[in-house]
Write a structure and sequence with these properties.
The chain has 17 helices and six strands. The protein has a four-stranded antiparallel beta sheet with strand order 1-2-4-3, sandwiched between helices.
Length: 359
């Protein structure tokens, strides 16, 4: 296979890849084999569940083999790799239909990660655009598994539970669109379902519950998952009942390998800057943020953090220090510019623990 010979021992000059192209590819194939054998069910439950359901396992194996085969050539390696696949797959005994699917996977092997990690998954247009490109549930299954092994084979520490959760979210919402059609659940209907479920969870008097719901614009209900809606509601209720001008809550999510910080305070210019600065001072890294303002002018910021190395930020003393730093920063009792300018790079410590579930 002369085309593969061109990537043997080929270095990748970036801060992301740990291995040469050929070793990365072989490691990805090894991970795919382990998923197929059920050896990584704990780390990748969704991929392990989907693997026996795909129609052609050799399509997936060949796609993994060829996904980076055009690296080092002039031009987009995904497009050039698809052209290589179209010529090479018939030599390997694949049917025209299988060849077409392999070429599509190679051409779009970065699509799912780019969509999940760089676009707003709460925007339904993101899902519709992705579903339009994928077109079929079978391609969606293949692309998810290819994406998982591609990311994990990059090197140690590149995969984490937060990435897995984003990929799972994109997979599930896209699968719903492909199977039921995008008109099956409109924006208003999805909001009403979320509010109904939350009302059942909270068990508040109807008047209190309606007053809470009316504080938010539709974007809030679309963006936040069900469990966060419940946590936010309880946090806001306690803050209002106890007269707290500023409420900071932290919740550890072992499945996603991340910690949620929810800040409820009066909105004012520079609020998020002070919040982000405090998180940096505490030695954490922001991996996601959803910023909301109520109709009454209160800010509700849901920020997802990890250790800078992608590990879980869960040590109790560090969380307490984080909450206190946020309060001090928002209150204006910390000179953020000076503190951040003198801040040393954060190094991984024993307080970080690994978590990699979700996909």
């Amino acid at each position: 296979m002369p085309d593969f010979g061109r990537v043997v021992a080929q270095m990748q000059y970036d801060m992301y890849h740990h291995y040469t192209v050929d070793e990365h590819t072989i490691r990805a194939i090894g991970l795919l084999s382990r998923i197929e054998k059920g050896e990584l069910t704990g780390d990748h439950p969704l991929s392990s569940e989907l693997m026996p359901k795909i129609h052609s396992r050799r399509v997936l194996y060949v796609a993994v083999l060829l996904h980076d085969i055009a690296k080092g050539r002039r031009g987009d390696h995904s497009i050039l790799g698809a052209e290589v696949a179209e010529k090479l797959c018939p030599r390997l005994g694949l049917t025209p239909e299988e060849t077409e699917t392999v070429a599509w996977l190679v051409r779009h092997h970065l699509l799912m990660s780019a969509t999940a990690f760089k676009r707003d998954l709460s925007d339904f247009k993101t899902v519709l655009d992705f579903a339009t490109e994928v077109q079929s549930p079978e391609r969606l299954k293949l692309l998810l598994i290819l994406t998982v092994v591609d990311i994990r084979a990059v090197g140690p520490g590149t995969w984490n539970g937060w990435k897995g959760q984003l990929l799972r979210q994109l997979y599930e919402t896209t699968e719903e669109v492909l199977l039921l059609g995008h008109a099956a659940r409109g924006r208003r209907e999805r909001i009403e379902v979320k509010q109904q479920r939350m009302g059942e969870q909270l068990g508040w008097p109807q008047e209190d519950f309606e007053r809470h719901c009316n504080q938010f614009f539709d974007a809030y209900w679309v963006a936040e998952p069900q469990d966060v809606l419940y946590l936010n509601a309880e946090q806001m209720r306690i803050a209002e009942m106890t007269g707290q001008a500023l409420s900071v809550a932290t919740v550890i999510d072992m499945d996603s390998g991340a910690t949620l910080i929810s800040v409820y305070a009066a909105d004012h210019p520079g609020l998020f800057f002070r919040l982000a600065g405090a998180i940096s001072l505490a030695g954490a890294n922001i991996v996601g943020a959803r910023i909301h303002t109520t109709r009454q002018g209160m800010a509700l910021d849901n920020v997802v953090i990890q250790c800078p190395t992608g590990e879980l930020f869960d040590e109790p003393e560090r969380l307490e220090r984080l909450r206190e730093t946020i309060k001090q920063s928002i209150a204006g009792r910390i000179k953020l510019h000076d503190r951040l300018a003198g801040k040393l790079p954060v190094r991984p410590g024993p307080a970080c623990s690994r978590s990699s579930r979700a996909c």
